[in-house]
UniProtKB/TrEMBL annotation:
<dbReference type="InterPro" id="IPR011050">
    <property type="entry name" value="Pectin_lyase_fold/virulence"/>
</dbReference>
<dbReference type="InterPro" id="IPR006626">
    <property type="entry name" value="PbH1"/>
</dbReference>
<keyword id="KW-0326">Glycosidase</keyword>
<dbReference type="InterPro" id="IPR012334">
    <property type="entry name" value="Pectin_lyas_fold"/>
</dbReference>
<dbReference type="InterPro" id="IPR000743">
    <property type="entry name" value="Glyco_hydro_28"/>
</dbReference>
<protein>
    <submittedName>
        <fullName>Probable polygalacturonase</fullName>
    </submittedName>
</protein>
<dbReference type="InterPro" id="IPR051801">
    <property type="entry name" value="GH28_Enzymes"/>
</dbReference>
<keyword id="KW-0378">Hydrolase</keyword>
<dbReference type="Pfam" id="PF00295">
    <property type="entry name" value="Glyco_hydro_28"/>
</dbReference>
<dbReference type="GO" id="GO:0005975">
    <property type="term" value="P:carbohydrate metabolic process"/>
</dbReference>
<dbReference type="GO" id="GO:0004650">
    <property type="term" value="F:polygalacturonase activity"/>
</dbReference>
<comment type="similarity">
    <text>Belongs to the glycosyl hydrolase 28 family.</text>
</comment>
Amino acid sequence: MLQDTRHWPLIAPLPSYGRGRERPGGRYISFIHGDRLHDIIITGENGTIDGQGDVWWNMWRQRTLQFTRPNLVEFMNSRSIIISNVIFKNSPFWNIHPVYCSNVVIHHVTILAPADSPNTDGIDPDSSSHVCIEDSYISTGDDLIAVKSGWDEYGIAYGRPSHSITIRRVTGSSPFSGIAVGSETSGGVEDVLAEHINLFNMGVGIHLKTNVGRGGVIRNIRVSNVYMENVRKGIKISGDVGDHPDNNFNLNALPVLKDVKIKDVWGENVQQPGLIHGLKNAPFSGICLSNIHLRGSPGPRNLPWQCSDVTGAAIQVSPWPCSELTSRPQHSECSSYF
């Protein structure tokens, strides 16, 4: 990649974000970038696309960035995309970012970045639909896969959700999250299926995250058959995560998070099995946990489940979760699930 950032081209901020994700104003164009395209194929015999992100990471650390760093790959307003059999390495910022896209298949890719590289998310479907991510390995400095849909008042106004997202047979490691939704979810996120996931040396295994001012509805999230090892938090569902683009967000724009089903999860050396914190004026509902067994790490550092402002149910979960998740699913929002 061109390393003279003084002459790196700029493009407009995404309308669902209102500004660059890191800095106000525009953003540096992605290394591979396309807008309003269709029938796109990026493939190879496991050849490497190296973003040479060190110079950008150092600018971020030294706080000398003028605009938001470039992604390695970004397609906007596009459809029928296939990305396969390529190694993506050392992205300056997010690695693969389909935004306002549909019919996207990403499979048999490897995504690599040092654990201390800032904001190097692996794959971030954003206000996109009918996305399939499978059979891939991701090891980065931020979330492996994060489903997004816009930022606060800008995402609410743009109003384009992410939906029909399938994630399967993905393995990886990161100091942040494995499978994430958020935190930018203002357009809504619906119908996400993640299954057969293996996570090692993680900050959080499964992470749903939003915030006051986000608005949007997160619902029908299904996660199953997950193995995790050496993880700080196994499951985290939180309503107080993520920053804001400016001070113009609406404090009354509360997110709705409901109908989350997580089952068949095993973990070793998990310091805290779960933390679920809804919002006082918008409790999370229909959080259904089944057949989840997360063993603690050696020593005294282990923490119990923590819950607040949430309703749902749990069966065959160890350690046993919070009292807010009843053990009587036949009388709860989870009765049709168990």
